[in-house]
């Protein structure tokens, strides 16, 4: 990593900003300084509230700059911009006077002024609320100067926002967590409650955005949660405080066999980053447990006892990245409140619990990367709350047909396998993909055996997704042409497209008409001989075909020998990277004016295409592998292929 960083910045001057740093590991700082201090003219700015960190990074004491707070005028401007979003503070003279007194109490701390301004923005018609903030006793507390103002912001939050906010204290400072994951934790702990017809996930998203807008910080979350949260940060656990509800650890030792854990009967959440052993059957004693996250950062053995069915309050179970789980205990089907079951990248997992259709509360079944999975349980369509189903494997028997997906309001990603078992377009349409507006990523996979051409084409027509789709993969499709919903460029929001092992397709659809497409992967199209003008589309967008495409990869097309050109500058205005692998007959290529990275592998070129030899090309990085004839050309040529910049 150090070498890679050094190579990237070796000829550049840079300004590196490290904001809100808390890490006091001197070895890491010394290693960092060795990399960056040898570059003349470059600067590093470190912001921190920890002077030890500043002294470790600074070469001289006078390189430290102790920042003073904002002036009253600047503090008021910041507060005003948050509290009076419309900019009409003059319409509320009484609140302006109160607000300026509040700002003085913020001590020039920008985050405090911003947080309280955001809070009071929602209460512009409630003078009493402004007075309550101004006169609060919290200002008298002897704490870090930033805490009183933020604590005021916290105490004025609605109850559901307070719960969601203080839960963030479960994670160590600086820890990165995905928004979607955090929302699922909130749901598991009962912090997200139903509101009309809105899905819980959408309500959680609104809560997240609300908290983000209020600019609240981790320090405050740790302050308000008190001893309800225990972060294990040593090699041995101590007795957990009697009121402990939330436990997290990212250290490699056997916490789940620690007997002191099972004495803390009020525990609601356990988040572990490393698990080296089986889960003790004593876990059944934690009968109030709602969230159990055993997602290891590296592959460790995890075995789940049948007694897990005694955790009747469990709503979230994460067993992702286990390298040993082949089957799950059938008793998991008897967890009546389970909402989320995450099994991501459990490569050896073959089966899911047979009675899963009885789990009426289940909303998310994440099996992404479970490549050994042979089938899905019968009757998965009975789970009316289901939002995520990463993999669906089509079967012939009742309860495993594609119609199981019909009424499910799926979101996120979906891989449908064994589409070769479908017999007609009617069967395919039963999946009702066109109405699944929250589906973002779709993979369609037929079997890798030879299939009936006409049947594949009929089935593909019935699998049209909603126009919101952003990522599409098609694998082992045996039709001669792609379905009309691709031919007609209906997926205007599509960002990434992969066409893999579509062996019989003789032509590419007009993909140049897709306005949002950024990444295009095409491989294994053995019948494709030419990339003709149809590829660019009959009409262009803003004067260009492929107006957004940045990366294009062509691979394993043994009969492809020609790639038609368009008028110079009429296509690929944003193309940055082109990779061509194992296309031995391909000789002619179009002109790529803006290409910076070219990677070619196993081509039969004896010289470079003329378009790459022109003056003014933008090429900066060139990688050539297994092109023997081209190697002779390069050794004898004096032509510079790479631009000087």
Structure description:
The structure is a single chain. The protein has 645 residues and is an alpha/beta fold. Among the domains are: 62 residues, no CATH class; 84 residues; 64 residues, no CATH class. Helices cover 24% and strands 14% of the residues. The chain is built from 17 helices and 22 strands. Strands 11-12-13-14-15-16-18-20-21-22 form a 10-stranded parallel sheet, with no helix packed on it. It starts with a helix and ends in a 9-residue tail after the last helix. The relative contact order is 0.04.
SSE order and pairing:
Layout: H1 2-9, E1 15-18, H2 26-36, E2 43-46, H3 51-57, H4 72-83, H5 93-105, H6 110-121, H7 127-134, H8 147-155, H9 159-167, H10 179-188, H11 200-213, H12 218-225, E3 229-232, E4 246-249, H13 259-263, E5 269-272, E6 291-293, E7 316-318, E8 340-342, E9 364-366, E10 388-389, E11 391-393, E12 412-417, H14 425-429, E13 439-445, H15 453-461, E14 471-475, H16 484-487, E15 496-500, E16 519-523, E17 530-531, E18 551-555, E19 562-563, E20 577-581, E21 597-601, E22 621-625, H17 628-636
Parallel strand pairs: 1-2, 3-4, 4-5, 5-6, 6-7, 7-8, 8-9, 9-10, 11-12, 12-13, 13-14, 14-15, 15-16, 16-18, 17-19, 18-20, 20-21, 21-22
Weakly predicted, low-confidence segments: 635-640
- How many distinct beta strands? 22
Distance between the termini: 24 Å
Helix content: 10-25%
Number of helices: 17
Radius of gyration: 30 Å
Q: Whole-number average pLDDT?
A: 82
Please report which band the strand proportion falls in: under 5%, 5-15%, 15-25%, 25-35%, 35-45% or over 45%: 5-15%
Backbone structural class: alpha/beta
Major sheet description: 10 strands, parallel
């Amino acid at each position: 990593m150090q070498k890679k960083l050094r190579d990237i910045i070796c000829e550049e001057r840079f300004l590196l900003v490290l904001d809100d740093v808390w890490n006091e590991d001197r070895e890491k700082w010394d290693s960092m300084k060795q990399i960056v201090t040898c570059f003349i003219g470059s600067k590093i700015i470190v912001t921190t509230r920890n002077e030890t960190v500043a002294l470790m990074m600074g070469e001289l004491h006078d390189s430290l700059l102790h920042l003073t707070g904002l002036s009253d005028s600047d503090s008021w401007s910041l507060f005003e911009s948050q509290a009076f979003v419309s900019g009409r503070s003059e319409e509320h003279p009484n609140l302006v006077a109160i607000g300026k007194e509040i700002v003085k109490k913020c001590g020039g701390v920008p985050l405090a002024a911003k947080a309280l301004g955001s809070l009071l923005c929602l209460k512009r018609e409630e003078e009493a609320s402004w007075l309550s903030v101004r006169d609060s006793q919290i200002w008298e507390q002897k704490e870090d100067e930033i805490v009183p103002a933020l604590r005021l912001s916290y105490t004025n939050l609605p109850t559901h926002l307070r719960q969601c906010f203080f839960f963030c204290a479960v994670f160590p400072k600086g820890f990165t967590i995905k928004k979607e994951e955090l929302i699922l934790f909130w749901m598991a702990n009962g912090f997200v409650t139903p509101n009309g017809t809105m899905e819980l996930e959408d309500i959680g998203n609104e809560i997240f955005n609300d908290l983000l807008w209020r600019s609240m910080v981790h320090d405050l979350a740790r302050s308000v949660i008190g001893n309800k949260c225990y972060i294990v940060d040593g090699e041995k656990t101590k007795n957990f405080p009697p009121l402990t509800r939330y436990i997290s650890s990212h250290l490699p030792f056997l916490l789940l066999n620690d007997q002191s854990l099972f004495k803390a009967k009020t525990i609601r959440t356990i988040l572990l980053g490393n698990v080296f052993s089986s889960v003790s059957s004593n876990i059944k004693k934690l009968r109030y447990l709602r969230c159990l996250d055993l997602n290891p950062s590296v592959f460790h053995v995890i075995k789940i006892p049948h007694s897990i069915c005694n955790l009747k309050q469990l709503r979230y179970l994460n067993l992702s990245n286990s390298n040993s789980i082949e089957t799950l205990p059938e008793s998991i089907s008897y967890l009546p409140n389970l909402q989320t079951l995450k099994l991501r990248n459990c490569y050896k997992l073959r089966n899911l619990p047979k009675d899963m259709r009885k789990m009426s509360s289940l909303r998310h079944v994440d099996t992404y990367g479970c490549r050994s999975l042979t089938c899905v349980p019968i009757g998965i369509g009975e789970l009316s709350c289901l939002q995520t189903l990463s993999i669906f494997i089509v079967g012939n028997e009742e309860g495993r047909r594609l119609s199981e997906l019909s009424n499910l309001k799926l979101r996120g990603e979906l891989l449908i396998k064994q589409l070769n078992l479908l017999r007609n377009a009617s069967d395919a349409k039963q999946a009702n993909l066109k109405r699944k507006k929250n589906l973002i990523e779709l993979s369609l996979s037929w079997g890798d055996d030879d299939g009936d051409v006409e049947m594949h084409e009929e089935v593909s027509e019935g699998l049209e997704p909603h126009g919101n789709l952003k990522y599409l993969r098609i694998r082992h499709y045996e039709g001669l042409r792609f379905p009309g919903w691709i031919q007609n460029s209906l997926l205007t929001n599509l960002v990434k497209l992969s066409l893999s092992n579509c062996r019989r397709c003789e032509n590419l659809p007009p993909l140049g008409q897709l306005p949002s497409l950024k990444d295009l992967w095409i491989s294994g199209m053995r019948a494709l001989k030419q990339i003709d003008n149809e590829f660019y589309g009959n009409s262009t967008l803003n004067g260009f075909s492929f107006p957004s495409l940045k990366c294009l990869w062509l691979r394993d097309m043994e009969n492809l020998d020609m790639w038609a050109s368009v008028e110079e500058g009429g296509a690929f205005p944003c193309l940055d990277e082109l990779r061509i692998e194992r296309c031995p007959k391909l000789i002619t290529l179009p002109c790529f004016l803006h290409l910076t990275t070219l990677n070619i592998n196993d081509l039969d070129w004896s010289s470079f295409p003329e378009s790459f030899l022109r003056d003014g090309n933008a090429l900066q990085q060139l990688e050539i592998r297994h092109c023997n004839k081209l190697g002779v050309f390069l050794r004898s040529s004096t032509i510079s292929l790479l631009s000087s910049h």
